[in-house]
Amino acid sequence: MKWIVITFSFFLMLSLSAQERTRILFLVDGSLSMRNEWKGGTKWNIATEVLQDLADSIEKIPNTEMGMRVFGHLYPEPDKNCRDSKLEVRIDSNNAKAIQKKLLEIRPKGITPLVYSIERSATDFGNVMAKNIIIIITDGEDACEGDPCSVSLTLQQNNIVLRPFIIGMQLNPKSFETMNCMGKLYNTNSSDEFVSTMKKVVIEAISKTTFQVNLLDKEKKPTETNVNMTLFDSETGLPKYHFYHTMNARGLPDTITVSPMFNYQLQIHTIPSITIDNIQFKQNEHRVIEVNAAQGSLQFGWQEPVLKNINTDRVKFLVKPAGGREIHFVQTPNSTEKYLTGSYYVEVLTLPRVLLTNVKIDQSKTTEILIPAPGLLVLQKNSEVIGSILYVEKGQLVKVCDLKAKDKIENIALQPGRYRLIYRPKFNRSIHTSVDKEIEITSGGSVSLKL
Asked: Which CATH code, of 2.60.40.1120, 2.110.10.10, 3.40.1160.10, 3.90.550.10, is assigned to 375-450?
């Protein structure tokens, strides 16, 4: 059977420059039903003849390895052995002859422990970093207890494989429905259809495409870079590739190699993030994706020196969209972060809070925000007291915080301004024991009170 080698040769030429390692594991059904006659021979004979020819072709493709696990071939059907699965040829290069030899030795005779075989395939790939592909050949669903969809999803979630291909040999409608969620499922109804589908699947599995992401500045030039990016499978929502945007030696966005077998969603992890849906690639073609991503920087700090005994690392700067509630990012003092250009709302979690509206970020510029350094209020207590600190703002009182009754000494960092401290001994039962003190806090200053 040489028709695959002839039609496959053109693709071999296209793959010669491929750099990413691709590892293919064939999961082959060796159950008793594979002895059933099909047009052109038994299902087993047709499947094995096609695999033998494919093995010769795949072996010639650079950076491509393959292996084979067979299930349902070690124990007779009456045994109903749900662990009847074995890695017959480990994944490696130059092993076409080993696959061909093993296929000639096997005689189908058992049941179909498909789910168990998929689970075991996770160990077959090992810890080698590569594009891992599973191609399943079977004529029926799992004969044991197990969820084929769940086990397939687990392999994808753990980045063990991209997405399984399942080539059915005259699956009945129930089996097709049960297995459709496992990956990319094809149901063939003749030997000719099986041959063409196998060729199509292997080509799709080995194919690579390249693309680049042009992050455009306000002049529509691809000068922005140094950003994380993730490609998700749009169908399952699982992440397939992670990249850090880089300029190559020529000063252009570097080329990325991916599999064209998915419909992708691209998330660019700028602040805020940018999402592009429904990205499709064609086999062995290059695509340029352009995204408006002009960025500037935002820096926070203090107007005056901060007292050494004030821990300003606890202060957080919440950056939000102008007029929105969602928090884009949380910064700390004396930090700089990049944002997409535009207007933002900043909430500074000092005591009391500082609110800044219409903070503008411009292309390739740093917007510096300096707020008054806090002062320190030191409360020394002879006994437990309860009460609150209120900020005097335009004649109104705004609660800032409660006192910590059990702390003998309490240090409170406050923004400059006028405050009222209202408290009483914790165990007094008269409201008339309340004490009201007015306090003035200066930037970088310290006030000490005995309560």
From this structure: 2.60.40.1120
